[in-house]
Input
Amino acid sequence: MATARSVIWRYYAYRITGATGFYLPVSILYLRHQGFGLAFIGVAQAAFLFGMVIAEIPSGYLGDRIGRRASLAVGNTLRASAMVGLVLASSPVAYLVVKVVWAFGWAFRSGTQNAWLYELLKQYFDESEYARIEGRGKMGLLITSAATAIAGGYLYSIDAALPFVVNAALAALGIPILYTLPAVGDGSADSDDPGGSNDSVFTVREAVHMLRVQAKRPAVRWLVAYAALFNGLFGMTRTFEQPALDSLGVSVVGLGVLYAGFKLVSAGAASTVGVLEEKLGIRRTFALLGPLFGVVYASIALTPLFLVPMLFLYRSTRVVIAPLRNQYLNDRLGDVGRATVLSGASMVLSTASGLANLAGGAIADSLGPVTFLPWAGLTVAGAAGVLWVATSPVRSSDDSTRTDPTGAVSTD
Output
């Protein structure tokens, strides 16, 4: 049997093949330079996010039904194919189709990867270390993205297709690494988890029932709703940050350097996840989000120069709250159907981002991205404050709750 240390290090190696640094600094500019306006870019990003919505539940179910590793391998294949497809696309419809394929690739990773890591730790290490291990994995991913971001800006200046093709090769490399890791918690023949036999098949009906049960639990429902507000804000910011920086005169090579800085600072932030969970706690960390982002986004209205520190903050915060959110949800779920429920949560987050991009694209096209972002931040901060007071989305009283394979709630 694999040792805990070996499993964790191979997991880190797999994580860094998900780095997006080669193409990320130029992904939106690429569409702008193909002649598309912000309104179409908003639609394209919405197509990506709604594609994730469509794929989240099926991909999570497949992760539970056919095996985590097989599902993750499909995701890597689709993402690599989409990166190549983007540079081959020659019409608006083709770009939208590629975005949807790309979204399916990400969906096959989202909930399944979270469930897989949690169960790897449960079998080989300690599942209570999920947030810390995932934070370190994210840190490695971000450091890799930082290094590749600098190269990406340079490659784009040589040939606009190069960043996407090279990043596709990195994604493909993840597949053989993935199959050096154990298959655990699949409930399938692919699993070497002693509890993962085929004696009890997780059916579609059970998956749907479990989602309904979890959606009725306030400790799960309101946390997902609260996180969705900020996911919508982050999704809009990510879509319009490159046009905003371009309007401030930042060059393509400069974008690569700046994105490298984003990733390095985010990597440092990811390393603090365990400390934040221990010292501040998930509840107090999430309570600070509304006031923090309200002030920081509003500062852009004073001077556009505050755009850069705002981008550093939102990216750093995003990598911190994701593992904390997943730790909170994982602690409230049973092993059977875990990936399905986490994919359901990801579906809600993607829906929020998709709607935000659809609405934001037209407004940003009219106002300009630099003028638009402060209003977006203040709106979300206000809504988050109301939701926090009205629902108390992060609750400690439900910590011991688990679900059985049919979704019934029980207490250990």
